[in-house]
Amino acid sequence: MLVGTLLLMLPWATRSGEATPPVDALFTSMSALSVTGLVTRDTATHWNWFGQGVILVLIQLGGLGFMVGASIVLSAVMGGVGSVRRQRLISENLPTLSLRDSVLMARRIARFTFAVEGIGALLLTLRFMGERDLPGALWHGVFHSVSAFCNAGFDLQGNFESLTAFEGSIMLNVIFIVLIQAGALSYLALHDVAQNRRWRRLSVNTRIVLTFNAFLILLGVVFFLAAEWNGAMVESREWTRPLQALFESVSGRTAGFTTTDFSQVSTVTTYSWIGLMFIGGASGSTAGGIKLTTVAIVLIAVLSEIRGRQEPEVFQRRIPMSLVMRATAIVTLFLLINFLTTLALASTEHLYGQDPPFVTILFETVSAQATNGLTTGITPGLSTPGKLILVGAMFVGRLGPLTLAYALAERKRPARYRLPETTVHIG
């Protein structure tokens, strides 16, 4: 992040030849490395090829590094654990691979990443060749392919417009949707599907990811069509509106690209998308949020309690209560962090005389913490303290869920005794 900041501060990273203020360089570097996509300076018009190249490298390092880096480090540390702890780690679904196996897995993930990005870059280059010369089309193809697979949300269209100019392009919409989903569903889930192919042979984790992901996409499409058919999409052709809704449902939860001007959407859509952004994508993917399985486990536990079950069950399997407690802790801590972040941002903008509507402030903080990148347009106008608050939110959002999950698992110790049980009034 710091190296990226220093490079983006240089005068020869901008089209104007002027140095970028440190806070904007820091914000852009953190946004790229955390694959968020929020920007205070327009990527296409402010940065030249060198600056855009720095951003692209940061996006690739952030997306690929997050997927494989943690596995290598954790597996190396755990390589020499004893049999008792190893069995506990297996029961907690934590990595128990050797360093050699971890490196092999990292190579497979890297090959998968570069293969998907390469195919996406080729197809997008062909799409952009109708509007640009070959070097420009190639650069746009590579940049957008990496940004889409890494769920980063950075674009080169200019004027903070994202992909609104391509609302009716079926080819471009489909390519972006496939790239975003390839990054958001994680290599492990896709590898499980490719290897086993039949639903019953898939792991419970993969089945939860696929089921919950499909449900959220469908829910997002229905919400967006109902709320924006005669709203933000009123000027779009009717046959493109379902495609717009599908794109927003897929991208809005994880990537941050948009084919609709989100400054024009209704409060219903804004509030709905806050929830979708908070959930994010699958664990071990390039997507942000608190992750699909985390929320799914909490919901499964709630439904099991309502149905009178003693333990949560899904797909004919029992979920350990320790996993439910850890998922609940992650959700609670992230809600608390977001409350404090939103309060801090609202306070700074009030002190600096900005005072944007509360729902837009909440939308911005959730977008940053979930490393999503969608915005209602207030990011460039935020005060310097406000920008720094979002930098902190992006940093916590990128490392938070994974760090919390493993930290909470490491703190678990077998109890040598049990205290007397008591009751407390609730409800």
Care to describe what's here?
The protein contains 16 helices and two strands. With 427 residues, it is mainly α. It has one domain. The protein has a two-stranded antiparallel ribbon. Strand 1 and strand 2 (317-318) form a beta hairpin. Helix 6 (99-128) crosses helix 7, helix 6 (99-128) packs antiparallel against helix 8 and helix 15 (358-369) crosses helix 16 (384-411). The protein is globular.
Fill in the keyword field for this structure.
64% helix, mainly alpha, two-stranded antiparallel sheet
Question: What is the distance, rounded to the nearest whole angstrom, between the alpha carbons of the first and last residues?
Answer: 46 Å
Strand order of the largest sheet: 1-2
In sequence order, what are the helices and strands, one letter per element?
A: HHHHHHHHHHHHHEEHHH
Radius of gyration, taken over Cα atoms and rounded to an integer in Å: 22 Å
β content, as a range? under 5%
Number of helices: 16
How is the main sheet built?
2 strands, antiparallel
- Give helix % range: 55-70%
Number of strands: 2
Residue-averaged pLDDT, rounded? 87
The tally of structural domains comes to 1
Low-confidence stretches: 73-96
> So what's the overall shape?
globular
The assigned structural class equals mainly alpha
